[in-house]
Amino acid sequence: MSVSQIQQLSFKALLFPLALVLYEFATYIGNDMILPGMPAVVHEFGAASSLVPTGMSAYLAGGVALQWLLGPLSDRIGRRPVMLAGAAIFIASCLLILLSNSIASFLLLRFIQGFGLCYLMAVGYAAIQEAFTEVTAIRVTALMANVALISPLIGPLAGAVIIEYCDWRWVFVSIAAVASLGLAGLYLAMPETSPRLKTPLNLAALWQDYSGVYRNRHFLAGALALTTAGLPLLAWLGQSPVILMQDRLFSALDFGLWQIPVFAGLIMGNIVLATLVSRMPLTRLLWLGMAPLCSGLCGVALASWLLPGSTALLVGSFALYALGCGISSAGLYRLVLFASPASKGTVAAALGMLSMLGYTLGIEIAKLGYALAGIGGFAMLTLLCAPATVALLRYFLHSAPAVAATTMEN
Prior knowledge:
- By secondary structure, this protein is mainly α.
- The chain is 80% helix and 0% strand.
- It has helices at residues 11-32, 38-44, 52-65, 67-77, 79-96, 103-113, 115-131, 134-148, 150-165, 169-189, 203-214, 217-247, 252-276, 282-306, 311-337, 344-383, 385-398, 401-404.
């Protein structure tokens, strides 16, 4: 590794994660700002309203497409040049979507925009974990999550305001402007943490690297637990424009306001994590998060079956779930990333591909459940994530007790 790991969070040390989180913010609002505009998009192109969640699915699918290459590539030529190139590609794709003239071209460019997530997950997150010591990295990750999670609060509201007064294409102009600021910050502040491996980059070597990671059952259980824990949130984001705007006839502004409790819960969970991570074993924090996570998903199911018209109960239950997700996600990500001895670029890419593929498929399945059985079908599919997450987490922690039981100190 070319830099010493950072232990203290000085202003200088924070410049890199702040620049990365600005880029992360842009990739998140790349999804969130267009949510209230998707009904207008499908209407303009004469497409079916069932394609509203597909705009998000295409974006997440793009987030899977390049990770297999980017992690190993950055292990060899450096994290910094790969990350800077990725940010530039994301900005260009946001501007190219202004030329869309059909739903097909729109979805294709949404897929390409999703590449921006690949660089963030396979390169940016790995660099953060390598640049900081364990406790500091978890605190930085929680801080980044809090800043980035402002995007789902601001994104739908900002997008609603733009849609109210301008064409939906201006949403992507705004996203490109934010990403440009992030790119400038990364150029100035990002350190080089890559091991710069000497082994050649070829398909046989990549296959061997990834097959080794995916054969690791400890890693696989943790990665799947992380995916099932976050899937209900992504399913809600993808389907909520249909649930709230199309079926319940809420305005775009009302849609944005109803997202606030959910992401306020997520932010609160990250604050709890950052506060407690040095005071108790990480395993206890993970199980602490499971209680509100599972309770919230049970509440979503009960709200959908007993009071299907109650938006307040539905959103409140998702907010409780999001609290648990926020408490557990950053710590679990850290443990999963180090669950394999492979280089961190490869492991981060393997984790990102698995999670983004799971999110993409889950959103489409939740969309199908809603189409076939309404809000009850949607809730049933999200509820299944609760026992799946608990079972996978239990296996993950028990398969490496010496690692999982470590108390975070200093």
